[in-house]
Amino acid sequence: MNHYLPKLILLFTLLFCCRNISAQQLLPADSVRYRYGLQPIAETQTKTSAENWLVIFKKTVSPQRLEAYGLRKIINAKAFIVHQQIPENELTKQLAYQGPANFNWKASEVLLQQLEKSADTDSITVRVSIKQDLPAVPYITVISIRRDYNIAMVKLPVKQWSSFIADTLIVFADKPRKALTEMILNGANPYINRINIAQEKFPGIDGKSIAVSVKEDKFDTTDLDFAGRIIYNPDASTNVTSHATTMATIIAGAGNTGALGLGAAPAAGLSSSNFNITLLPDTATYYRKYNISLQNHSYGTEIENFYGPDAAAYDKQIYESDTLEHVFSAGNIGGQPSNSGIYQGLIYANLTGNVKQAKNLLVVGGTDAAGNFISLSSHGPAYDGRIKPELSAFGQDGTSGAAATVTGISTLLQDYWKQQTFTPMPSALLKVILLNSAGRATGTGPNYKSGYGSVNALHALQTLKDKHFGNGSTTGNNSTSIDLNIPDNIQELKVTLYWNDLPASVNATKALVNDLDLRVTGTDGNLYLPWILNPAPDSLAVPAKRGRDTLNNIEQVTITNPAAGTARIHISAGQLRGTQTWYYAYELVPKSTFAWHNPDAQTIFEANTNVDLYWESTYTGNGNVQYSLDSGATWQTVVTNYPVSSGYLGWYVPATFSKAMLRFQLPDTSFTSPPFIISPKVTIQTGFNCADSTFIFWDNLPNAVQYNIYNMGKTRLQPYQQTADTFLFIAKAQLSSSNFAVSPVSAAGWEGLRSYTVDFTTQGVDCYVKSLIADKTTDNAVQLTLNLGSTYQLKEVVWQRYNGKSWDNLQTTPITGSLLYYYTDPNTWEGLMYYRVQLNTFDGRAFYSGISTVQIFKTDNIMVFPNPVVNTLGIMDPVVRERQVVITDMSGRERMRVTITDSLAGIGMSQLPAGVYNCTIYYNGQRIYNRKFVKL
């Protein structure tokens, strides 16, 4: 064995060296040089430009240090493409490599990866941004082109790639992509983002003047919650999905189906746009034709950290249209690392799609029921260090719902503005109000996970109502100052500046074009700068600090505990191209405040369930939460020593039908909620659904003295009737809808929780009968089971069997009050048996069930039918096996031989003359059946 030892040592040494050589070949620096500098991808020679240089540093370098050399592309934290060669200076000492670059910096990482896996003989489809026209070369096949954004889809041979991407007409090339929706489960919650209290405080604001588009597959246009408000688009997807239906419901559901069907803006119009056609913005004609001012995008592609054609196109559309806004979900891959750019490898910068790198739209992250960031949610920063997402909203099961929530709240703001001014709301004003009114802890700045805070519908509408906003424009070096009067007892002043910025060039290393500056002089005379974040890869979790912002088109200043007096807002230009319009909003948060937000005066909690309680307070310390069912005469404890600053508490609602109040008791004061209602939910059932009438009934609710019945109108449920009974007969002659709901009414006159809406035609009940089932027993008897929807006015059940010509009465069973009845028929014959029931009422009417059938086998368990036969002889055998069927005439002459394998088979008889024949069936050579039949 010892003479093998030197050979083994040599073998392991060689393997170790090979492993190290392979590892060296895969080092990031070498792969970057192969992709962008040293090696072409598809050809032996690649065109290079002395004006484009690949530089790779030994350690992380801030992109800002390379702007003087014409920064073209950020490949990662150490590798860049620059326009000019870096001369000998302090920076070159950190260089690991510098050399001429090819033109692959004009393409996305995912496209380059695809090219590297392709052969020269392959063709590839790419999406390109062009200056005006495509190169006039014969190898390009144009698939489609959008002149409004100078974007084309083309097909070309891989071997022509280097020439194609080097052409000066090509600005950027990318891989086509398909969008995927970003939601796991339905988890809408109107309380977290204060939609419920906004609807209570602003009852006339419901979205009625606004049209919203949902871009993805189609939502269910037959859903009762959208009735009468669908804006039909012939280009909508034909694929109806529950995801799209849920998004539309969160935005603008009318609540007709039940409480969970109530959206933020229940009167808004709804249109569907197809994301399978294009991920670019829809045409201006679409938005104009259907009067759409908001579009929801709850989908994503993959992590794409660059300013691509989609981002530039949306920025351009929003900048030019002024009153159109787009809302995007951040994504649901918050735990995945960034795959390219300066943040490569970090669990940051994982927004799903380059469109979400745009400046002028809103990207929304997700929170849990307490308003805390969830790890599922994708987050920023943007590729160039900008703050993303801008806002967050409830999205515990996915950021799709978070985006839809912000879209719904935006609809309310647009509706309020339009009702007040009769004009469309500027999108920049909409966004600055949403951003400024969003909630986060006093004295804290934005971050790369939740943006500028959790959207707050009530505060946003209150900002509009109080007119705490303004606008202006900046040209050249001029600046604007605005004075604010600060009253006593203010805990925080918050001021936000926002502007829709010019679109940057596709593949730009920095998206911001016009850079404005916000500063606020406090009542103390001090100058306060905006909150900024450090975009360096090693500083993304560092809290915000104050400083000059040169990245974002959002700037926000807060001042804690300002004294009474005059504060002054200053707005000026740091860098400007042309004239820039801007909007600002401000908020004054008073000290020593407490307000219940759930429950509110309209709240109805379902009894015996878990609910979320919400309040808003500037108090600190702990206290006790209690509830009362007797108008405050006595109180029962929910929790003790609970922090008032949390603003959130889960509560298991008692099983009662009562008015109630909640109280948060601090050591020196207490805060009582408005009276609200606790109510069980009644359940509607259909008793019968006959030709001329129907009968519905529901469970009796203790302490309910009346019941309100609702019937579906054109867009909403309408009062139909009130009754003290727990049932209702409905004549169909005057009925416009088969959808009904019921709510209980107390002796004091207040109304409890409305039931789910039920369509009596889809409850599986015909005229009294839910089902009649016929089952064969082991001894070939038939067991009949009758399930009734109701026994109201029924006298008896008559069990009937068909004898081939008429129906025989088998037995009469009196109605006892049960909904289930049984009968066993022992007198059966081989073949197909038919059964039904006749239901007799006390007033002499008769109703019949549908027919139930059962197959009986008695002779060898094989049946041949019909007998006589005209065209096809059926053979039924409960055992699946291969059999030979032989048909002979009465003289014994074989007229037909057929092999069958199925349990049920048909043999054509049309070629046989009329007469009597014999059917014999064989299995494995053994005769298992023999019977005569007549051919007509």
TrEMBL record:
Domain Peptidase S8/S53, residue spans: 207-453
Alphabetized Gene3D superfamilies for the sequence: 2.60.120.380, Peptidase S8/S53 domain
Signal peptide: 1-23
Database matches in Pfam families: Peptidase_S8
Keyword annotations from UniProtKB, A to Z: Signal
Entry superkingdom: Bacteria
InterPro entries registered for this protein in UniProt: Galactose-bd-like_sf (IPR008979), Peptidase_S8/S53_dom (IPR000209), Peptidase_S8/S53_dom_sf (IPR036852), Peptidase_S8/S53_subtilisin (IPR051048), Secre_tail (IPR026444)
Example GO biological process: proteolysis
A GO term for molecular function: serine-type endopeptidase activity
Family: Belongs to the peptidase S8 family.
Protein name: Por secretion system C-terminal sorting domain-containing protein
The organism of origin for this protein: Chitinophaga jiangningensis
